[in-house]
Amino acid sequence: MTIECAGNGRSFYSPPVAGVQWQKGAVGTARWTGVRLRDVLARVRAKASARFVLFDGADAPLATIPDFVRQVPIAKALDPDTILAYEMNGAPLPIANGFPLRAIVPGWEGAYSVKWLTHVQVLDREGDSFWIKTAYRYPTRRIAPEAAVAPEDMAPVAGLFVISAAYVWFKQAFGLASHEDFVLRGLAERTLVTQALFLAGWLLGSGSLRLPRVAPDGARLAGTLLTAVAAARLLWFDILLFNPALQDQWAGSLPLFNLIAANYLPGAVWLYLARRRAATAAHSWPWLAAFLVALIAATALLVRQYYHGAFLTGAALPNEAYGYSLAFLIVSIGLIVAGIRLPDKALRLAGLVLLTATIVKVFLVDAAELTGVLRILSFLVLGIALIGIGRLYGPILRAEREEPGGAGLADGAASR
Q: Residue 127, Cα to own-chain centre: how many angstroms?
């Protein structure tokens, strides 16, 4: 297990932060052996009113510094992986690493794994030590640099590490140990992680999920950051680096009911929802751009999956180009209709741009390969579609000319 000090890299902080000025290296990995803390608590018959477990070590405080103690909630103390360790890498604990006994609290920052244990105390309320009430805490709302923060606006540094530990556990459990594993399960693994991040980001950003002792603004910021991480994963890994059309990856054999539909289409929806939640045009346009990239990628990959099956690599098949044209024609019309109904002028414009590009492709590429009646029919269908779009879009343009404010988001900002 890897243990990292919360102050790792502290010397690089600006403005400076009090404490040991670690650069890099306040982190280590070892195999720990010990007894489960929950077994010890069961042996001493800890009361049902227990809420926290406090650790105190033999290290004496310097000068006026308070005695160093840490506490964990009872749920974490009862976790089967929380132990009192007496061996490190198969040998008795070295003195520097906590001999004869130390706490090991996986997934939480290193200060919770107290060395040289002398006392383990069960509490029915949160302790009042400086190291619990004041130190190792972070603000739950936005603050100016060097501004004072009231204790009630701070939360312990703990859950942030639980999230990273859960991600590591998931990666290990999925077990992509070889290229064959990547081909069979790589896209599925990325889909689960990315969609989980999108869901968590939406729940926090929309206020549907509240974090204990975290102000609403802080939760919304966390939601935005999680959504940005999910968007980066989708764009970088799934569209650029590990695109299933370029690298062999099992995507599912059924049209529309496959990993392409499960990852790329919901990803596009989450990104558009993030755009709608953005407060200003400056904040919303990156989400719109990411949404359009994800939607276009989803459309192209779904068409390719329809023609190629579970694996999307390989040369283009006959009539595949017509499938792309039809799909993008449907998507462009959908964008225009959605932009009218929501209303969202930027969405309508995106639909018109995509429609124009599709028409150019049909005339320059698709129609050139058709002859006779098929070529005439392709022009006829395209003409009917354009007339229908014109009749649909005309009233919108006239309404915008008559009402300068417009019925929608002319500047691209999200509606409320």
A: 33
Q: Which residue has the higher pLDDT, 366 or 260?
A: 260
Report all structural domains of the chain as residue ranges with CATH numbers, in order of start: 2-157 (3.90.420.10), 165-402 (no CATH)
Chain-centroid distance of CA 111 in Å reads: 27
Within 58-189, strands assigned E span 69-73, 83-88, 91-92, 102-104, 117-123, 137-139, 154-156
pLDDT digit string (tens) for 270-323?
999 999 988 777 789 999 999 999 999 999 999 999 999 999 998 989 889 889
Cα pseudo-dihedral 308, 311, 314, 318, rounded to 10: 0
- Cα separation values, 29 from 4, 82, 88, 230, Å: 9, 16, 10, 28
Q: HSE, CB side, 13 Å, CA atoms: give it for residue 137.
A: 23
188, 286, 294: which is closest to 239 by C-alpha?
294
Alpha carbon distance 131, 36 (integer Å): 24
Residue 209, exposed/middle/buried by CB under 10 A (0-12, 13-18, 19+)?
middle
pLDDT tier for residue 32 given thresholds of 50, 70 and 90: very high
Distance CA 12, CA 344 (A): 44
Q: What gap in Å lies between CA 387 and CA 379, rounded to an integer?
A: 12
Helices and strands (H, E) in the chain, number of each type: 11, 11
Kindly state the tokens that stand for 77. 């103390």
Residue with token string 């976790």: 79
What are the φ/ψ torsions at residue 88 (nearest 5 degrees)?
A: -130, 120
Contacts of 276 (CB under 8 A, 6+ apart): 284, 414, 415
Reported as a single tens digit per residue, the pLDDT across 41-76 is 999 998 889 999 999 999 887 777 788 888 888 989
The DSSP secondary structure of 253-272, one letter per residue, reads: SSSSSSHHHHHHHHHHHHHH
